[in-house]
Amino acid sequence: MTGTLVEALEAAKDVDGAVLLPPTSFAAQPGTCVVLRGPNGAGKTTLLRLVAGLTAPTAGTVTLDGVVADERDAATRDAVAALVGPPATYRDLTLRDHLTLVDATWGRDPATCDERVHAALDRWGVTHLDERFPHELSSGQAHLFHLSLTWFRPARLLVLDEPEQRLDDSRRLLLGRLVRERCAEGTTVVMACHDPAVTEAVADAVVDLPDAT
Ligand SMILES: Nc1ncnc2c1ncn2[C@@H]1O[C@H](COP(=O)(O)OP(=O)(O)OP(=O)(O)O)[C@@H](O)[C@H]1O
């Protein structure tokens, strides 16, 4: 079995012993997009954190190409790019600097770094903001920057928590196109989404989480 497999999963329980996620199982094949749906508090973010290996389940398993997902494991970090909550950014680095840093982290050729950084910002329509610092962006611009950072690192699995949030209609269409583009390149995408139009545009499969209340 290749791809991302989520089996008989139950997330970590909270301090009162309450289960944060109903029993859930699904498989996401390479090149496909699975969308998690459900009302506020249903457990979408919790499930995404488990899929990305950011949290360990108390029951069940999450495997990526047969290996248990664990962000402390280099194999998971190589495989996964996750945007679940805002990523760490640095007040003293511009958008361009952030991408240049990621580029260097992944050992890419410095001679061609500028081209890749330009293309990464251009993909999300934020090239004109390349000399801004993160705190000089609107919330939607910051989100587009976070998406460009997420897209920039190599990944076989993209994990995205409500990536449509704060985006205007044209950027939601762009998001749909870019998710489909990544799937066509063979990347697996697992994402939570509240927008039916975006879901319709990107989903190969949908996992519905029931209302937890
Ligand atoms: N850090 C935490 N400590 C305790 N309970 C938490 C924590 N984070 C989330 N929960 C609880 O876990 C359950 C699932 O929350 P989660 O954030 O996964 O839902 P969600 O489906 O992503 O919701 P939303 O659509 O509002 O983002 C909720 O009952 C929530 O209150």
UniProtKB/TrEMBL annotation:
InterPro entries for this protein: AAA+_ATPase, ABC_transporter-like_ATP-bd, P-loop_NTPase
Tree of life domain: Bacteria
Claim: Metal-binding is one of the keywords in the record: no
PROSITE patterns hit by this protein: ABC_TRANSPORTER_2 (PS50893)
Keywords: ATP-binding, Nucleotide-binding
A GO term, aspect molecular function: ATP binding
Pfam family, one: ABC_tran
Protein's UniProt keywords contain Calcium: no
Domain ABC transporter span(s) in chain numbering: 6-213
PANTHER family, per database record: SKFA PEPTIDE EXPORT ATP-BINDING PROTEIN SKFE
Protein name: ATP-binding cassette domain-containing protein
Taxonomic classification: Bacteria, Bacillati, Actinomycetota, Actinomycetes, Micrococcales
